Amino acid sequence: MTPPAIVARALAEGLGMIAVCDHNSAGNAAAVQEAAGTHLAVLAGMEITTAEECHVIALFPDAEAAQGAGAAVGATLGQADDDYETFFGEQRILAADGSERARETLALATSTTLDVDAAVRLIHSHGGLAIAAHVDRRSFGVIGQLGLFPTAAGFDAVELSRHIAPRSADEARFAVHGLPLVHSSDAHYLSDVGTARTLVHCARPTFDEVALALRGARGRGVGHA
Amino acid sequence: MKLEDIARELGLIELTPEVSAGDEAEIERGYASDLLSDVLAHAPEGGVLVTLQVHLNVIAVASHAELAAVIFAGDRRPDEDMRAKAVAEGIALFVSPADTFDIVGRLYAMGIQGTHA
């Protein structure tokens, strides 16, 4: 999963935009943006693990905003110990050419101390969009962890995993919260890239256009690829 | 076993005395889980829940599942909003510094059983 490999795979899959959402870190987003150049739109994001062990996807206007939010998230995490990478995998911070720049020393696989409401507030305070991740999954989705969708948290959208087919009865079960539904791959391996996708009706592949599309504003919208 | 007897035996901190004081209902069953969807599906009506979760949804779920009481383990404390909602729903809340395993073990020893007992 190096920046050049991710970009090449996304282009081969015919994607026009991807979001880089490392767990509790925004450390690799700028490198993927640089690797993509003008060939592919890359949003800087993050997948925050809340205190309730809910996953929340954050999409930010740019890499700087993502880094700012990432610093606030990181401040709630503990340090990784010596055995950490043996059990949880290498936490490499890569340059645009795929070479290793540094190792993340925070324990990114653990929960932050932010509850769901605080995570959404943090994302919004950095100009971002907050999406309830893979709500159909039994673990780490807000419904699985919290029993009912936390309507008051202020999410901008609901994400469904690749296991929920577009336009299916399963999908319809999640359309009851008055929020737009997006499908994404939650890619942890290159072969996952493109296994789920969302069609964004917009003028340009940019963060601002995605924000309009999630609000259904100015003729923009999200649908199925 | 009455709620007040359980609270006294386990040394629980009582958050909602207006609910638990004088409550004569007998607690016979319990459930322990931090996945609230699991609580919703499996917790026994009239029972007590032991959980680490302190999200407001605990009360909504406990109300749906018709639980009598919730014990928060590991000294986790709900906020005042949550306490007020619990009072409105008639659900008693307690806090214990003990962990889930110890609380459940002691409840079991007092005769409170799980859903499959």
Describe this structure in words.
- The complex is a heterodimer of chains A (225) and B (117).
- Chain A has 225 residues and is of the alpha/beta class.
- The model of chain A has no long low-confidence stretch (mean pLDDT 95).
- Chain A has one domain (3-224): TIM Barrel.
- Chain A is globular and about 45 Å long.
- The two termini of chain A are 24 Å apart.
- Chain A has helices at residues 3-12, 29-36, 63-74, 84-88, 116-125, 142-146, 169-172, 207-215, and strands at residues 17-20, 41-49, 55-60, 92-94, 100-103, 129-132, 157-160, 181-183, 198-201, 221-224.
- In chain A, β1, α2 and β2 (41-49) form a beta-alpha-beta unit.
- In chain A, the strands form 3 sheets. Chain A has a 6-stranded mixed β-sheet with strand order 1-2-3-6-7-8.
- Chain B is an alpha/beta fold and 117 residues long.
- Chain B has a single domain (3-109), classed as Udp-n-acetylmuramoylalanyl-d-glutamate--2,6- Diaminopimelate Ligase, Chain: A, domain 1, CATH 3.40.1390.20.
- Helix content of chain B is 40%, strand content 15%.
- Chain B is built from 6 helices and 5 strands.
- Chain B has helices spanning 3-10, 17-20, 36-42, 57-64, 80-89, 100-109; strands at 13-14, 30-32, 48-51, 69-72, 92-95.
- Chain B has a 5-stranded mixed β-sheet, sandwiched between helices.
- In chain B, α4 (57-64) links the parallel β3 and β4.
- In chain B, α3 (36-42) runs parallel beside α4.
- In chain B, 38% of the residues are buried.
- The mean pLDDT of chain B is 94.
- The interface between A and B is medium-sized, with 14 and 13 residues.
